[in-house]
Amino acid sequence: MHRPTKRLTRMLVTAATVPAVLVVAGCSSDSGSDSSDGAKESSSKASASAAQEAAKKKVEPAKYAALPQACSALSKKTLADLVPKGDSKAGSSDDESARASCSWSSLDNNGVKGSQYRWLNVSMVRFDSDVNRGSGADLASDYYAKQVEDAQGTDGAKGVKTSAVKETGDEATLVAYDRSYKDKKKDVTSRQQTVVTRVDNVVVTVDFNGSGLAGDKTPDAGDLSKDAEKAAQEVVASVRAAGGAGAGDASASASPSKSADGKSDSKDGGKDDGKSDAEAKSKN
Q1: φ, ψ for residue 204 (rounded to 5)?
Q2: CA–CA distance, 186 with 207 (Å, rounded to integer)
């Protein structure tokens, strides 16, 4: 009488146990899948991180480690031709191995015939290779393009002309234009020539302008351009002689650069305003 009851009880217990086993097995299976996906994701992140570190270590070292003295970057003969008896003024810099500039102004007084004013400025900005930002040459190339763009967009510039300059650094551009101002109530035309050139990880900017004061004639733009290009070529030669090679050492693969960052307050990092100088001279 009691055996069928006991057999039925065992069957019910067994049936109740099966879903629990399936649930446990299902949970165990899901847990294994999550673990596998997590391992794959972790491995992928590790590979990407390793690739990034490897790329950083491959940043090309900067070629030039120093800059020449800005006020000595041009020969005495060149200075005598461009700014006769000119006075020099060194630009301020926190680190002259990374950023340097110098300007010269000259007033050739011809008495009742008037006078000729000249202003020359040389600026140099050097970039170290940086593991986060790229090679010094690439950083310099970006800054070079910005310098050209800034020259083309100078306030008050008239008749802006842009042309390539050959045999000057790795790349070079001349931006020429006129600007006008008052000299004793008379309109004076100042002719500006800006040559921007890059030599590997260094950007050189040469600004040269001239004007005729007190009735003297305005200087020829073509002559000024040739003089500016000649000065740029000479400064490039000074950079190559002073900078040396092999500047890219451990700094190219270890720590960020402490050199110029290309974010200067002025167009070329420390030059004076030639227009203001000319106005000041004319008022004296």
Answers
A1: -110, 130
A2: 24
CA–CA dist 166, 14 (Å, integer) = 94
Neighbours of 65 (CB within 10 A): 21
pLDDT digits (tens, 9 = 90+) for 175-189: 999 999 877 777 889
Among candidate residues 227, 199, 208, 209, the one with its CA nearest the CA of residue 124: 199
What is the spatial distance between Cα 89 and Cα 167, in angstroms, rounded to a whole number? Answer: 28
Q: What is the pLDDT of residues 35-76, one digit of tens each?
A: 666 666 666 776 767 666 655 568 899 999 999 999 999 999
CB 70 within 8 A of CB 95: no
User: CA of 60: how far to CAs of 111, 132, 135, 239, 253, in Å?
Assistant: 57, 12, 5, 19, 9
Alpha-carbon gap, residue 84 to 68, rounded angstroms: 22
Compute the distance between CA of residue 97 and CA of residue 100 in angstroms, rounded to an integer: 7
How do strand 186-199 and strand 99-109 relate by DSSP bridges? unpaired
Model's pTM, two decimal places?
Answer: 0.71
In this predicted structure, the answer to whether residue 253 has a pLDDT above a threshold of 50 is no
CA 240/CA 207 separation, integer angstroms: 20
For residue 130, list its beta bridge partners. Answer: 134
Task: Summarize the chain as % helix, strand, coil (round to 5).
Answer: 45, 25, 30
Cα dihedral sign, 157-159-160-165: negative
